[in-house]
């Protein structure tokens, strides 16, 4: 089912949304969520794939159905355990004939007994000062209840559930699957041909399956549109309580996007806002943003979004030098004024933030708060501007941008570490004043709720 937003502007294509439904695709999302599809990771890493992603209209009805669960976790039976003294490894043979290897030190460090673990907190009691990192292993056996039972040289004994062990297998495939299950770092890229997924505000608030589908989509594609919220203040706070708590910043617990006299932020005017991420003036910018439309302008004020991770990968392919510059040089950002209280913040961020393996993990770009202080050697200034220009031109191409118009009651939720968003100029009328209410959350809290919902809906995890 496709929801068509009545877009009143003519220069852009009519934007459409795809409705998220709780029952059918939740299975697909969940299996995808714990499936370490190397193909998807490849999209994130690769510099050789074609520049246009596959069109993915209503993709959860199609591609997600094909996802298969990895054979990590689930029921595991240990057939045999053998001490490899010379390597100081325990070798476990599983009933499917595969093997896993566990270092002695790691096993001793993670003993699950009540002396070594505080069961009520699932936290380690064993002190590192008491851990012999060169420990040997006296004996190992598979007990009658299929546990791996170890006796250490000091006669301390440990018992491990086979499933627990298999989940923590050190093979590259198992590690990758486990990390994907924990962090859901696989992303689906999109461009202007894509439809923003949509869900019902009240369903997300009251139904765990709907909330899970919402958060899985938010993580995977970076933006989900919620319809049907009351057109009154307080809804973003209510939605944040569904997760845990919101992120307080100098702009308050929640903030009102309106045309304000003596605005302390360019967002609080009626002017055009070019594509940006919020708050790169903080070293840890908010991970997730909620924007709720209470009142729309009579004319203008359409929203624009691009997939920043996708744009960064395109830049890496099309202009590698620009990518290298933006992912290595630190840019100063500044923001000062008074709102929740008075503030004067400064930060240094890379516009394209990459992790130790070169994967794009965050976009930090807001032209309004980019500082005039530019802490670069003279000869790097011009290359920096050229690189930034190249990135901005790329993201402003019509084929990369999705445009939509919010109506009162609409609430958009998006990944502020990934998406760049903007707004077209609007006429500040006297009768109706455009008014959005916004709030921030952080990804740690959102991912925490996602894992809890996944466990509540599916039981096992
Ligand atoms: Zn112990």
Automatic annotation (TrEMBL):
Pathway entry: Amine and polyamine biosynthesis; carnitine biosynthesis
EC number(s) recorded for this UniProt protein: 1.14.11.1
Pfam family for this entry, one: GBBH-like_N
Catalyzed reaction equations: 4-(trimethylamino)butanoate + 2-oxoglutarate + O2 = carnitine + succinate + CO2
Cofactor: Fe(2+); L-ascorbate
Keywords recorded for this protein, A-Z: Carnitine biosynthesis, Dioxygenase, Iron, Metal-binding, Oxidoreductase
Gene Ontology MF terms: gamma-butyrobetaine dioxygenase activity; iron ion binding
InterPro entries: AlphaKG_dependent_hydroxylases, GBBH-like, GBBH-like_N, GBBH-like_N_sf, TauD-like_sf, TauD/TfdA-like
Cellular component annotations (GO), alphabetically ordered: mitochondrion
Residues in TauD/TfdA-like domain copies: 200-440
Domain Gamma-butyrobetaine hydroxylase-like N-terminal span(s) in chain numbering: 85-165
GO biological process, one term: carnitine biosynthetic process
Catalytic class of the enzyme: oxidoreductase
Role, per record: Catalyzes the formation of L-carnitine from gamma-butyrobetaine.
Family of the protein in this entry: Belongs to the gamma-BBH/TMLD family.
Name of protein: gamma-butyrobetaine dioxygenase
Organism classification: Eukaryota, Metazoa, Chordata, Craniata, Vertebrata
